[in-house]
């Protein structure tokens, strides 16, 4: 339906326009009945809808309608499967249409800076490329149903402690390379209908009133077309927020901030055109949903089955010594732990779904004659019960294999607070250690929203990372444990050995200012650079079959501005089972132009292969794949030179490499001055000759540069090192030129 929104807005009173810029209540936008503008509903829902019919809250305290809980992002990201995530989005979009929800508040793409962040279960990854690709696919799926998404939390919202007031102190290069790209990818690829700004400040300015963030970057640079809404209660100054690019305040301010907007317009401190523009952006999304409203049934059972499929495609097999998995149906097995019958399958807080049913792994077992159950420990508390523990140890002795279902109780991690440590409940670690002594064939299945320390890791033969698997997690676990499904997930985050290894360890959880002093070295970027041992690396995951990589080729050896390059590799299933492999492309900058990570993920594909089958996987590489953000030119920049394309099975399992050359047409400005060093002059071809000239003159002055003239005190190597760091102003003091002559030469070079 064609609508003239500007004409519609011209018929609204100032008060009605101001009112459109805040919620009617907790979950509804205001309407204007006399003009045919309806009130619409928004709801949490990145992994399942949380529509509340009466008592409303933002922390999951009150019940919402019965719905399907799909695997949260902590698990679904491990699928590395864009098509799967797009279908997940379509399913969520269908459920939103069925329940009359216009906007789903998600996905959440904040980077996993620390394992302690209480909301990590809702975030995709430590890697911005994976997070962005995952979000773009999910958004595309949801919005194909004319239901909006609200990508969140924009931006640098990486802890829960003091999240409403803390300032994330982040340099621009780190923002651009780590904390913004997931949002950028999603906006450019999928145009989310809305963006939700975060609570926190960024370098001292609230995200809700940050024009650099909400207008310059989001709209002017990335081309965002929808509207920006606040996180619930994130508005500090409503009028300044509106000026900065915050269109919608949520929830209702009970008219208080509406009146502030009206007053500002009347007094001339707010241009009414800014208000009109905000209303138009909101109405454009409102009518996108209203004009495409579709009555349809809520297909809970079908969606439950799809939730199971997502979990099966995402669960990660981390350890499988002596092929302890898959379990055989005729083996006697003990299932141990409170999670066997009471799985933890989602996180706490605003995304908590009121699941219409939950399938535990015990429910999923169709034949239980060879399986015995021992509770061992509660899934909800950290209490070592001697009686329960003894029963579990005895059960482990009586069987061929023991499977311990361990994990974090809901009280250990949730929105609103951060974890204090990375441990499992002490009772679980203690019992696992005892089970291993009684039964050498012990397997652990983890239910957790973030990384945990595993002091028993070397002693268990099998380890399955199920994370939080959604309401059908039990059936998915049973199918993977018994080999009905071949595991194919890979880790979307590094699992460190201990908390102290994490790059943000000394700078996480501060209350007023949080210094992101680790910069761009987050996750595997840090561990790789430090050559640090980890429990399991980013991108790692095992299968019940094996894969071989071969025949890597590129369609060209040199790349330049505006071009793309194709790199292809053959992947073969060399085992005897059908399986899926996640092939990863990393790029390593070999130019040494600036300090960078050892490698960065720039592509991934999931490929399904029958035994003996080979398929060719192709990735596209462009300038952005090679580039880093240069704050001096305010743009992405790649220095000319060699780059390695790494075909890998994980960040630490590089199978094949191919070196290409990049020829840049970008020229960085020279800023030479009296205190520039000879080394700086020699590093750039435009000033290199002059730098060498000065160096030779200084060497001649001090008798350096010849082995015959070298002394024990000053070797050629030492002379070169000293000369490299000498400020050019010394050429004046050494009588090699006048100050005026040197400044004239520097000015001339700076113009090149």
TrEMBL record:
<comment type="similarity">
    <text>Belongs to the glycosyl hydrolase 3 family.</text>
</comment>
<dbReference type="InterPro" id="IPR017853">
    <property type="entry name" value="GH"/>
</dbReference>
<dbReference type="InterPro" id="IPR050288">
    <property type="entry name" value="Cellulose_deg_GH3"/>
</dbReference>
<feature type="domain" description="Fibronectin type III-like">
    <location>
        <begin position="581"/>
        <end position="651"/>
    </location>
</feature>
<dbReference type="InterPro" id="IPR026891">
    <property type="entry name" value="Fn3-like"/>
</dbReference>
<dbReference type="Pfam" id="PF00933">
    <property type="entry name" value="Glyco_hydro_3"/>
</dbReference>
<dbReference type="Pfam" id="PF01915">
    <property type="entry name" value="Glyco_hydro_3_C"/>
</dbReference>
<dbReference type="InterPro" id="IPR036962">
    <property type="entry name" value="Glyco_hydro_3_N_sf"/>
</dbReference>
<dbReference type="InterPro" id="IPR013783">
    <property type="entry name" value="Ig-like_fold"/>
</dbReference>
<keyword id="KW-0378">Hydrolase</keyword>
<dbReference type="InterPro" id="IPR001764">
    <property type="entry name" value="Glyco_hydro_3_N"/>
</dbReference>
<dbReference type="InterPro" id="IPR036881">
    <property type="entry name" value="Glyco_hydro_3_C_sf"/>
</dbReference>
<protein>
    <submittedName>
        <fullName>Glycoside hydrolase family 3 C-terminal domain-containing protein</fullName>
    </submittedName>
</protein>
<dbReference type="InterPro" id="IPR002772">
    <property type="entry name" value="Glyco_hydro_3_C"/>
</dbReference>
<dbReference type="GO" id="GO:0016787">
    <property type="term" value="F:hydrolase activity"/>
</dbReference>
<dbReference type="Pfam" id="PF14310">
    <property type="entry name" value="Fn3-like"/>
</dbReference>
């Amino acid at each position: 339906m064609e609508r003239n929104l500007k004409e519609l807005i011209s018929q609204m009173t100032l008060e009605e326009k101001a009112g459109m810029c805040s919620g009617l209540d907790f979950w509804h936008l205001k309407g204007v009945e006399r003009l045919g503008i309806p009130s619409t509903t928004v709801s949490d829902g990145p992994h399942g809808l949380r529509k509340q019919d009466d008592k409303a809250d933002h922390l999951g305290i009150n019940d919402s309608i019965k719905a399907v809980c799909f695997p949260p992002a902590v698990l679904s990201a491990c699928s590395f499967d864009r098509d799967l995530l797009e279908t997940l989005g379509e399913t969520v979009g269908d459920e939103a249409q069925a329940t009359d929800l216009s906007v789903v508040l998600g996905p959440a793409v904040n980077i996993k800076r620390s394992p302690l962040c209480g909301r990590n279960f809702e975030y995709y990854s430590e890697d911005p490329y994976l997070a962005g690709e995952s979000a773009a696919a999910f958004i595309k799926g949801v919005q194909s149903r004319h239901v909006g998404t609200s990508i969140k939390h924009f931006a640098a919202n990486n802890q829960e402690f003091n999240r409403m007031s803390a300032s994330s102190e982040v340099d621009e290069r780190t923002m651009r390379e780590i904390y913004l790209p997931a949002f950028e990818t999603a906006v450019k690829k999928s145009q989310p209908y809305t963006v939700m700004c975060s609570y926190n400040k960024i370098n001292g300015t609230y995200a809700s009133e940050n024009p650099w963030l909400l207008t310059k970057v989001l709209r002017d640079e990335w081309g965002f077309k929808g509207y920006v809404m606040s996180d619930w209660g994130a508005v500090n100054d409503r009028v300044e927020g509106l000026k900065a690019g915050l269109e919608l305040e949520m929830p209702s301010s009970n008219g208080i901030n509406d009146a502030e907007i009206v007053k500002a317009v009347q007094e001339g401190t707010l241009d009414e055109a800014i208000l009109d523009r905000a209303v138009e952006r909101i109405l454009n999304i409102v009518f996108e949903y209203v004009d495409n409203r579709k009555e349809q049934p809520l297909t809970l059972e079908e969606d439950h089955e799809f939730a199971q499929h997502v979990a099966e495609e995402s669960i990660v097999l981390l350890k499988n010594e002596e092929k302890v998995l898959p379990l055989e149906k005729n083996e006697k097995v003990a299932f141990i732990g409170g999670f066997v019958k009471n799985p933890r399958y989602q996180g706490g807080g605003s995304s908590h779904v009121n699941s219409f049913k939950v399938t535990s792994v015990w429910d999923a077992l169709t034949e239980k004659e060879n399986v015995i159950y021992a509770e061992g420990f509660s899934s909800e508390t950290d209490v070592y019960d001697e009686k329960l523990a003894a029963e579990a140890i005895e059960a482990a002795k009586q069987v061929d294999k023991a499977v311990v279902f361990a994990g974090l109780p809901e009280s250990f991690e949730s929105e609103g607070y951060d974890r204090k440590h990375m441990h499992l409940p002490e009772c679980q670690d203690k019992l696992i250690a005892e089970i291993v002594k009684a039964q050498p064939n012990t397997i652990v299945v983890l239910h957790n929203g973030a990384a945990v320390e595993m002091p028993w890791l070397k002693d268990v033969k099998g380890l399955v990372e199920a994370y939080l698997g959604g309401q059908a997690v039990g059936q998915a676990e049973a199918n993977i444990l018994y080999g009905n499904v071949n595991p194919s997930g890979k880790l979307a985050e590094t699992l460190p050995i201990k908390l102290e290894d994490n790059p943000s360890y000394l700078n996480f959880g501060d209350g007023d200012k949080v210094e992101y002093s680790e910069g761009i070295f987050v996750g595997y970027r840090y561990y790789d650079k430090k050559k640090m041992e980890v429990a399991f690396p980013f991108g790692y995951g095992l299968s019940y079959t094996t894969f071989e990589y071969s025949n890597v080729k590129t369609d060209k050896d040199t790349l330049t501005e505006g071009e793309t390059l194709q790199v292809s590799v053959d992947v073969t299933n060399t085992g005897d089972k059908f399986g899926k492999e996640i092939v990863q492309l990393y790029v390593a900058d070999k130019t040494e132009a600036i300090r960078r990570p050892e490698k960065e993920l720039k592509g991934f594909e999931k490929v399904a292969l029958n035994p003996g089958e080979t398929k060719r996987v192709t990735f596209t590489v462009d300038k952005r794949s090679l580039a880093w953000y240069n704050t001096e030119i305010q743009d992405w920049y790649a220095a000319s030179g060699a780059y390695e394309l790494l075909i890998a099975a994980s960040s630490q399992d590089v199978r094949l490499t191919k070196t290409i050359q990049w020829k840049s047409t970008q020229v960085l400005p020279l800023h030479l001055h009296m205190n520039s060093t000879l080394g700086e002059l020699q590093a750039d071809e435009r000033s290199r000759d002059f730098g060498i000239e000065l160096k030779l003159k200084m060497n001649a002055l001090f008798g350096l540069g010849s082995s015959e003239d070298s002394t024990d005190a000053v070797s050629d190597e030492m002379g070169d090192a000293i000369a490299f760091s000498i400020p050019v102003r010394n050429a004046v003091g050494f009588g090699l030129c006048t100050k005026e002559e040197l400044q004239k030469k520097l000015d001339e070079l700076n113009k090149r």
